[in-house]
Write a structure and sequence with these properties.
With 84 residues, the chain is mostly helical. It has helices at 3-32, 41-69, 75-80. α1 runs antiparallel to α2.
């Protein structure tokens, strides 16, 4: 693998991580302010919180992948990216 390819892959993976982080932040904001006219907000919020957790795991998995691609293991990020 060439250095240019490795850099391009790292940038792509980092961009995907940023998208996952943004998704988590957006879902978290929605969970904090559920629609007032929702018939049963508790399951709605529970579902959003599960999606937030999944997006955060994707975020950490992507960051761990970048570190691994650069030749470094980042056990903390790998542990945070594990499915429950």
């Amino acid at each position: 693998m060439t250095s240019d390819l490795r850099v391009a892959l790292c940038r792509s993976i980092t961009a995907r991580a940023q998208l996952a982080g943004a998704e988590a932040a957006e879902l978290e904001a929605q969970a904090a302010n559920p629609p007032e006219d929702h018939p049963d907000p508790e399951p709605f919020v529970q579902h959003l919180q599960e999606r937030v957790a999944a997006a955060r795991r994707r975020y950490w998995r992507e960051l761990a992948a970048v570190q691994l691609l650069m030749g470094h293991r980042w056990e903390q990020a790998e542990a945070l990216g594990v499915e429950p």
